[in-house]
TrEMBL record:
Belongs to the prokaryotic molybdopterin-containing oxidoreductase family. Its cofactor is [4Fe-4S] cluster; Mo-bis(molybdopterin guanine dinucleotide). This is Formate dehydrogenase major subunit. Residues 650-756 form the Molybdopterin dinucleotide-binding domain. Keywords: 4Fe-4S, Iron, Iron-sulfur, Metal-binding, Molybdenum, Oxidoreductase. Its EC number is 1.17.1.9. It holds the Pfam family Molydop_binding.
Length: 773
């Protein structure tokens, strides 16, 4: 039997702090995985689901997008601790019924944390609340769709926004963007706008594709692997196995990060008794504890040193043949990197010249290098130049289109890459729109829509009437929390297609609908032709099927493709050019459409049924070619930049806890960092703590400064921690309120969650104004 939902919420006064751990996984990870599953879903649902996670013919873990092998056998437990937690959350036998909503008015729910809300269980019925009402109440599905149609048709397409979470499967995403464009809008913000948008913005003009250029098998051949701005021990734990195996082969593994995360140093592989109980396998050979925002300076220094080493020993470092045949702009890059200001570089990175030079030498010796990165690089004002600098290094040594080499942006959401492939993008290409128009006989809008940050601005200016959210928790995922929540509450209609309660349901529009949907683990068999399956794309462009087998907790749940189709029918009418009913009844129909619209998906229905699915074309990886506007890989030149904190301030980055997946909290134990039973903490170097005039565990209010304005977040505890000097770290979304709406990566508009300038004041119960003070 599962345990009932917790009644107690977070009490920050119960915070416990212990020493950080120095290895990831192990027996504890196995025990936590099983305990979370049994407590939420019960033994039967837990064991049945775990046996099918990431297995051929099973379902794709709704956690990270790390791939599975497409050539070899898969492990019996092809999941990690956090994957098990994600499944426990979704397979939960706890239910949130109409009676639950009747017992919990909005006034009570508004004071609950995301941890408490998410722990209550799966939503069983469609629910609605109107302006002036105190409780959500049940509504029938036909009435819900009629309500959506009434509001959408009462306004204009440009005042409707269709947000998407990366959880959404390919077929659903394709139908969702088709609905938006059939209606007449490209307002299709998604979670990638807030995470890896900078990656695509940097990669497309330099290598001609916005995705990574490696396969999982490349990790078996790499001589050097860089893990930059990323914490695989918590966010992509299965990646640690690939890194550990590479280390055993003799590869150099370089971690670059402000925090010394446990997963960098050791893995106690839970796949074997020896791994769980024995000595941890070492992971990284080198660790560069860089200052937040110093990565651009670091990669520019690497470029300078590689060119210097090449000059000293011609032909030993630079791949001149590849550069001449496949790239453009090398001479300008060479000139730009011919000099370096070492004092500025050391100040920007917090590293010594000797530390940087040592790692540059191992990079120079490597004949096959993979550079991996995640949000530590993508959420800076200068994120795009930083990532272009990585591409420069890879081009310099010819690290494309050969075994063991390439660029590897590690996506954090299980199908966020697939959503973009399917057309979820506010800036669609003419090629995509023309193909949609030809296939469906519609007239897609050409004007670009809102990304996530632009949607925040639009909410603030009361320019959004209807907001539809396909999964996700937009209110807590974006910056400027207070302003965003206030804007959402002024919207005429908010619609949340969800599995569990979250904060966005509470800060709802004047009218708000919650539409309960099936999850990855659930059977989807209410169709004329029987059970259906969906597909997803992993971080390495592999398309494969996903099919749940658990009995849904309620007969009132609808599959996401069915919800999209019925919305479309209600809004656009049954005589619309698109046959929405056919797609809802048989997902093969959706895939046939996709096969004719999107390159690389030819014969989709046959290929997705193959044992390992199929891999999408990737010119840099497949043919060492680059589909840029000039038909070549592009070297770029960027100016030196770094984050510089004003006097009396430190640089704040946000991060996940180990018991967290995006805005979902599985529990309150960040055990690798030694933080338990609390989340409102600031990790700060002991010397910075002393210089600020505070002591370990002091209670403070945090004030961020941006362009002369201030933001404030109250009641955080300072925790002495070995982070990089001059830098502090806090959990998101608690610290999101500190991010000014205009603090973004310049080219990609991604919020600057890793670039806040903060100071601390003693906590007061009467802080005064919090915005633009």
């Amino acid at each position: 039997m599962h345990r009932p939902a917790p009644k107690k919420d977070i009490n920050e006064d119960e915070l416990k702090v212990s020493e950080p751990e120095h290895a990831a996984a192990g027996l504890k990870a196995v025990m936590v995985s099983m305990e979370r599953g049994f407590s939420e879903a019960g033994p039967s649902r837990t064991l049945r689901s775990m046996l099918r996670i990431n297995q051929r013919g099973g379902f794709d873990c709704p956690g990270c997008a790390w791939p599975e092998s497409i050539t070899g056998a898969r492990k019996p437990a092809e999941f990690c601790e956090n994957g098990a937690k994600a499944i426990a959350e979704e397979a939960s036998a706890r239910t949130v019924t109409p009676e639950w909503f009747a017992e919990h008015p909005i006034s009570v729910l508004q004071d609950k944390t995301e941890y408490w809300l998410g722990s209550q269980g799966r939503i069983t019925n469609p629910m609605i609340i109107h302006a002036g009402e105190t409780h959500y109440r049940p509504i029938s599905w036909p009435e819900a769709f009629a309500t959506i149609a009434e509001h959408v048709n009462a306004t204009t397409p440009d005042r409707c926004v269709f947000y998407t979470s990366g959880r959404t499967a390919n077929e659903t995403a394709f139908m969702y963007q088709l609905l938006a464009r059939s209606l007449g809008t490209n307002n299709l913000p998604d979670c990638s706008n807030m995470c890896h948008e900078s990656s695509g913005t940097a990669l497309n003009p330099t290598i001609g594709i916005g995705k990574g250029t490696v396969s999982l098998e490349d990790f078996e051949h790499a001589e050097a692997i860089f893990v930059v701005g990323q914490n695989p021990g918590t966010n992509h734990p299965r990646m640690l196995s690939a890194l550990a195996d590479a280390r055993k082969r003799g590869a150099r593994i370089v971690a670059v990060n402000p925090l010394p995360e446990a997963g960098f140093f050791g893995l106690k592989d839970p796949q074997s008794v020896k791994g769980m109980l024995g000595k941890a396998d070492p992971i990284c050979t080198d660790f560069l504890q860089i200052k937040v925002g110093g990565d651009l300076a670091l990669f520019q220094a690497f470029g300078h040193l590689l060119l210097k080493f090449e000059q000293e020993t011609p032909g030993s470092v630079v791949d001149h043949e590849f550069i001449a045949a496949a790239t453009d702009g090398f001479e300008a890059y060479r000139q730009a990197r011919s000099t370096i200001d070492w004092d500025a570089t050391e100040q920007a990175t917090g590293l010594t010249r000797a530390e940087i030079t040592d790692v540059a030498r191992l990079l120079a010796k490597s004949k096959a290098t993979i550079i991996c990165w995640a949000l530590g690089l993508t959420q800076q004002p200068h994120s795009v130049p930083t990532l272009k600098e990585i591409i420069n290094l890879l081009l310099l040594q010819g690290n494309f289109g050969k075994p063991g080499a390439g660029a590897c942006p590690v996506r954090g959401h299980s199908n966020v890459q697939g959503d973009r492939t399917m057309g979820i993008w506010e800036k669609p290409t003419e090629k995509l729109l023309a193909a949609l128009d030809a296939e469906f006989g519609i007239d897609s809008p050409r004007e670009h829509g809102y990304d996530s940050t632009e949607a925040l601005h639009a909410f603030e200016k009361d320019e959004i009437d209807v907001f539809v959210s396909m999964g996700g928790n937009f209110a807590l995922a974006n910056s400027e929390t207070e302003a965003l929540e206030a804007g959402m509450q002024r919207a005429k209609l908010t619609v949340h297609i969800s599995t569990k309660p979250n904060r966005s349901h509470v800060v709802h529009g004047q009218t708000s609908l919650i539409l309960p949907t099936l999850g990855r683990t659930d059977k989807d068999d209410k169709h004329p032709g029987g059970a259906q399956f969906l597909s997803v794309e992993d971080s390495m462009s592999v398309i494969h099927s996903t099919q749940g087998r658990l009995t849904p907790v309620s007969n009132h749940l609808l599959a996401e493709p069915v919800i999209v189709a019925r919305m479309a029918q209600a809004i656009l009418g049954d005589d619309h050019a698109v046959d929405w009913r056919a797609m809802a009844e048989d997902y093969d129909v959706v895939r046939d459409h996709i096969s004719r619209v999107l390159p690389g998906f030819e014969d989709f229905n046959r290929r997705v049924r193959e044992k390992n699915g199929f891999v999408l074309p990737n010119p840099p990886r497949d043919t060492r070619s680059f589909a840029t506007d000039i038909g070549k890989g592009r070297f770029t030149v960027s100016e030196f930049e770094a984050l510089q904190a004003p006097e009396g301030h430190l640089i704040l980055q946000t991060m996940r806890s180990h018991d967290q997946y995006n805005t979902t909290f599985y529990g309150l134990d960040d055990r690798y960092r030694g933080i338990k039973d609390g989340r409102r903490v600031i990790l700060i170097h002991p010397e910075d703590l002393e210089a600020a005039g505070f002591k370990d565990r002091d209670l403070v209010d945090v004030i961020s400064t941006f362009r002369g304005t201030e933001r404030r977040a109250n009641r955080f505890r300072l925790v002495s921690y070995p982070t990089a000097k001059g830098c502090v770290a806090a959990y998101f979304p608690e610290a999101n309120a500190l991010v000014h709406r205009e603090l973004v990566a310049r080219e990609s508009n991604t919020p600057g969650f890793k670039a806040m300038m903060v100071r601390f004041v003693e906590h007061t119960e009467d802080p005064g104004p919090t915005l633009d003070s």
